[in-house]
Amino acid sequence: MGKIIFGLSAVIIMYFVFVLFVTKTNINISDLFTKRTNWASTCTKRTDAFDNQIYFSLNNDRIYNHVYMPMFTGVVYSISIKARLSNLTNGSENVIFKYNNKLLTSFSVTNNVWHYYRKFFSVTYDPCFGQALLEIVSKNRSDSIDIKDIKFEIPSLYDTFKRHRIENDLYKTNLIMNGDFKDGLNHWEVWKSYKDSIITIITNYNYNAIRITNPQKRYVGFKQDIVISSGKVYRLSANIRPYINTNIYFGARISLGVGDNKYYLLWLNNNNWLRKELVFTNAISGKASLFFYLGYYNNNASADFSDIRLEEKLNQ
Predict the structure, then answer these.
(1) Domain residue limits, the chain
(2) Which class is domain 25-166?
(3) Residue 202 confidence (pLDDT)
């Protein structure tokens, strides 16, 4: 009898440990936030071609939504969101969370690739029933902030203990090494080059880039080899602008070669940073070569290349 009682007690203890350390409670206010009238009417509703998720895009405006709910002293809460900027600029957009007009936490979105942001916080006043306010601020006319997957939760103890490791994690992993050029041209090799070509590493507080100047009107660029799998969905993307805005086609290109299959993106006459992406299902496993280069239109041109990414769709 004693062994049975001991066994049942152990099972009960293990259950509560699992509940406390592994499970988390979604307070389920994200749907209320995103379905309110002014949110849907102010934002542009779009679908991400990569994962078919709905997201909202806001340009040069300020929106907010609120729900009334209790919050308690001593309880750890978390709010998470996936967000990006539509273009690469020197600015930032903000996501703000308040309770009864007191700032609890905020995010500063500065990158034009989907990032997963998560912050932990607690309130410091007596238990009460008040207004939880989520505010999205877009103040840059040349940019938009895209948002999706808003979650407000009471996290598990395990999440709370490792909170410093999961705040601001990348939403997806880039298969390209040093695609953001933070380490200059490490992991890249010269594909084609000519005597008068000029390669410049651009360092900015918000981004890094490689500038190619091509007076010889030839193919000039770099390559990197990676390994990808057949049957998998991938997204190829990059951010490119002409260094000197002219009326000519500057002809910048990102190309991915997998056996006899070629996937590419082409920039011709945009006058500022422009991000393009291509979603495809790969048919061949093995080595793939990614190239970025100028010279597609045989013009004397210069262009900046930034944030080249190849991402594998999650949960395939």
Answers:
(1) 25-166, 189-312
(2) mainly beta
(3) 85
